[in-house]
Backbone:
């Protein structure tokens, strides 16, 4: 890029950032009965939710708040699909990694029944289980999987998200080529693979499918009538249609098949059902006089075990920070978070995914938690779309420069090529067309995740981040070829 081009680009960025003001689309709010025991300021909660949904351009959301063993607030907001169907407290939404709390609960039920021992290796329940290191395979216990300390990596767990079209057994069998990145039990690493394996352990021990077990022993006793493990089972096609954020704009999309990874991130539930689940979690396993888990076993589920950082520990399908127990989750086009704080429980579900503004989604739950404790939440005036304006603009400029560079490469040159110019051109090709693209292609997955996952969770931008280096490499080879051809012509 010449000095003149750099100045033009800089001025263009400053001008656009100063002049561009964007506004999010309006949201239609669902009319639904509110539940309250009269101790909370419902109007404040409702106003806060509406403000955040509009500011973040969220198509639809469902919120449930419980206190003790009672539902205090429950409502749906916005729409559940492009046709404008209302989002309600009974609308099923895919939970993402909040699913892990259900898988952990199922495992602890089987521990309580004496069918599983936390200290037993996985091989005791899945005799053929293997990773690359056979000795390490024998050391991985149920406890390691629950606490995310098996040695299976975050990266490999991310890759697994796009491989859910296998059965659960086929998915776990494919781990025989996976290498552990830490010794077993040595280090916390959040990996979806741990909970996929636990899903198969449930199947092997009970001789039931994961789907059948969860439905019979968790959904039914908790009266979770709008909860599923298979989207094909959702009655009357009421499941939400999720939205992905493509270059800053919400676009309705269909999820991939996730049969083989359902136990780590693809249970489907409603706000109403999540309220029942939270009541059981807050009341030592008891719901309407029934115990789905003994009090001491529920304490084990919530016990902080693996240090994550910043005073946060991983328990079993939950993160624990001081007195707050929580877990969030997201799929390619949905989001959820459950937070248990003393006697209160909060569940938020959203039918969209915004990879670059996930902290804003988490902040909604934090704000609601402040409100239920009679504190004022921090209100943000930021426009999340501006992140996309900057990213989109930078990517547009880069693509434009690549196109311009390619055009100049094929354009007949009339200027005299000096030795110094040849050297600068050669350095430019090495640095901008080979070195930087290769660093990006090799280093980006290490920092941000595998290509398949980045494309899945950040479509458009994720695709361009990998397409741009490839284009630069192609242009670099074309430039080199032109130089070689020109040299051979001159030699002849």
Residues:
């Amino acid at each position: 890029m010449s000095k003149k081009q750099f100045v033009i680009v800089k001025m263009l960025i400053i001008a656009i950032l100063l002049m561009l003001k964007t506004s999010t689309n309006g949201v239609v709010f669902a009319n639904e009965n509110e539940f309250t025991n009269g101790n909370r300021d419902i109007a404040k909660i409702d106003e806060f939710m509406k403000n955040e949904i509009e500011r973040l351009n969220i198509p639809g959301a469902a919120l449930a708040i419980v206190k003790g063993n009672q539902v205090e607030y429950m409502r749906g907001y916005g729409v559940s699909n492009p046709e404008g169907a209302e989002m309600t407290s009974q609308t099923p939404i895919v939970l993402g990694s909040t699913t892990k709390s259900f898988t952990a609960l199922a495992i602890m039920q089987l521990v309580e029944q004496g069918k599983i021992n936390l200290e037993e290796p996985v091989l005791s329940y899945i005799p053929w289980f293997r990773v690359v290191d056979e000795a390490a395979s024998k050391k991985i216990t149920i406890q390691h999987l629950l606490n995310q300390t098996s040695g299976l990596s975050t990266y490999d767990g991310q890759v697994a998200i796009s491989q859910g079209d296998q059965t659960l057994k086929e998915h776990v069998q494919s781990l025989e080529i996976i290498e552990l990145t830490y010794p077993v039990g040595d280090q916390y690493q959040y990996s979806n693979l741990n909970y996929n394996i636990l899903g198969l352990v449930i199947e092997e021990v009970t001789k039931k499918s994961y789907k059948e077990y969860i439905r019979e022993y968790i959904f039914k006793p908790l009266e979770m009538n709008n909860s599923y493990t298979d989207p094909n089972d959702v009655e009357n096609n009421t499941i939400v249609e999720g939205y992905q954020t493509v270059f800053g704009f919400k676009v309705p999309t269909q999820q991939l098949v996730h049969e083989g990874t359902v136990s780590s991130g693809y249970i489907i539930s409603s706000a109403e059902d999540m309220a029942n689940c939270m009541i059981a979690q807050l009341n030592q396993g008891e719901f309407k006089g029934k115990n789905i888990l003994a009090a001491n076993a529920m304490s084990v589920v919530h016990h902080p075990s693996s240090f994550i950082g910043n005073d946060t520990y991983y328990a079993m399908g939950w993160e624990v920070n001081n007195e707050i127990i929580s877990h969030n989750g997201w799929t390619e086009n949905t989001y959820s978070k459950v937070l248990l704080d003393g006697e209160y429980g909060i569940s938020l579900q959203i039918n969209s995914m915004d990879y670059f503004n996930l902290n804003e989604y988490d902040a909604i739950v934090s704000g609601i938690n402040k409100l239920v404790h009679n504190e004022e939440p921090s209100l943000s005036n930021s426009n999340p779309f501006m992140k996309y304006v900057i990213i989109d603009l930078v990517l547009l400029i880069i693509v434009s420069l690549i196109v311009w560079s390619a055009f100049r490469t094929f354009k007949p040159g009339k200027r005299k090529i000096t030795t110094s110019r040849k050297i600068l051109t050669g350095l430019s090709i090495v640095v901008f067309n080979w070195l930087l693209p290769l660093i990006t292609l090799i280093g980006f997955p290490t920092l941000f995740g595998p290509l398949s996952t980045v494309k899945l969770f950040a479509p458009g931008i994720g695709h361009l981040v990998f397409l741009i280096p490839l284009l630069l490499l192609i242009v670099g080879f074309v430039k080199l070829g032109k130089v070689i051809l020109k040299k051979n012509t001159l030699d002849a």
Remarks:
- Residues 1-39 have pLDDT under 50 and may be disordered.
- The chain is about 45% helix and 15% strand.
- The longest strand covers residues 70-78.
